[in-house]
Amino acid sequence: FSCELIKRVTGIPTPEMTPHLSVLRDSELLYERGIFPQATYIFRHSLTQEVAYDSLLQKRKQEIHERIGKAIEELYAERLEESYEVLAHHYSRSENSEKAYQYMKLSGDKATQSHSPWEAFRLYKEAIHALNLLPDSEQRKRRSIEVRLSMLPSLNRLGYVEDTLDILQEGERLCRELGDEVSLARLTSFIGLAYTAQGNTIQARKYEETAFQAAERTDDIQLLTQTGFMLCVSYTMDGLYSEVVTVAPKIIAWIESSQREVEIETLGGSNAYSVLMAYYGVALGMKGDFEQGSAQCEKGLRFALQLNEPYTLSTVELQTGVLFLIKGESQKAAEHLESAIKYAEETQNYILLGLAWVLLGEAYGQLGELETARKYMEKGLKVYQDAGMPDIFAHITYGWLGIVQTDEGKL
C-alpha cells in the first residue's frame, strides 16, 4: 500500500502520518520500498498482519475495506482494470455488495480473457454470492442470468465440475420467470452438455434439441449457430453422425449467408464456423465419405489458423486428428493431436486436453508403440482426475486402454 492510499483511507495528513510509519518501519513491523513520499509499505510478517486485522471489530473491518476500495478507484481511475481483483477483494469484505458484484464480475471476465478458467469460475461464483445479498428485484435476476452466461466458456473448459448443473438450472429457472427466451436457449443448451458430462445422454439430447428448436423460432443467426453447434456436439457424443451431417451444413450455410464467419462464436468461446466444419468433417468420415470429410476439416483448420485463436485451434486440430484416426493415417493423426494438446494447455482447456492425450495414445497404439500409447492414455486420465472433472469420455479411455494392455499381454 502506498503513502497516498494510506492517507486517503485514514484521513491523516502526510506530516502526521510520517512519524507513525517510521516507528512501524524501525520496529520491523513494516517493510518500506522506495523513497518517501513515493514509498510503498508491506507487512514484514503475515502473522503481524493477521493479528492487527483480527483485533478490529467486524463493522470496522467492513468500513476500512470500503474506504480502501474507494481510494483505489480514485487513485487509479485511468487504469482501473489492473485493480479489478483487489477491488473485488475489498468490496466483498465491505457492506457494499453492489460494488462487490461489479468487480467480481469484471475480474471473472478478465480471467476468462486470460485463459484462467478455474479463477474465472471462482470469481463468477463470488459474483453470484454478492448478487444474492442485494434486495430481490428484476435487475438482480437479470444480472444473475448475465453472470451465468459469462461463466459458460470457463465451465466448458473445466468439464462441468462441482455444482455446475445447479448453477445452470437456477439460471434456467430465472429465465423462465422473466420470459427471457434467448438466454433460456443458451443456458438450456449448456445444461444439455452438463448432463452429457454425467453420462445422461438421453436427458442431454432432450435439452439440446429443445434449445435448438427455440432458436429456430427466432431470426437470430448467432443463437441458431450456438445452439446448433451444441446439438452437433451432443449428436457426436451419441454417435448420431447422420444427424450431424443433416444439421451442420445448414448452420454453416446460415453463417456464410450472413457473412459472419469471423464474428460468431460458440457459447464456449471458439469460432463457430471453424469448429462446425471440423465436426461436420468427422461426421462425414464416420459415414465413410473421407474425401468430403477431409475437405471440411482442412477448410475449418485453414480458417482457424488465419484467426490464430488458440481455443478454436485446440478443437479443430483435435477433430482433424480424429478424422485421420478413422482413416487409419496414424502419423498424421498424431501430428494434429499434438498440436491440439499444445493449444489446449495454453488455454487450460482441460476437457479437451484429457481427450487429446487419450486419442494421441490411440494413434501410437495404431503405430505399434504400445508403451507410449498406454503412457499417453494414462496421462489423459490423470488430466481429468487432477482437474476434478468427470471423465465423460470414459467409454473411449478405458476401452482403448484395455486394448493396449491386452496387446501388451497385461490381462
TrEMBL record:
Keyword ATP-binding: yes
A GO term, aspect molecular function: ATP binding
UniProt keyword list: ATP-binding, Nucleotide-binding
InterPro entries on file: TPR-like_helical_dom_sf (IPR011990), TPR_rpt (IPR019734)
GO cellular component: cytoplasm
Protein name: Uncharacterized protein
Organism: marine sediment metagenome
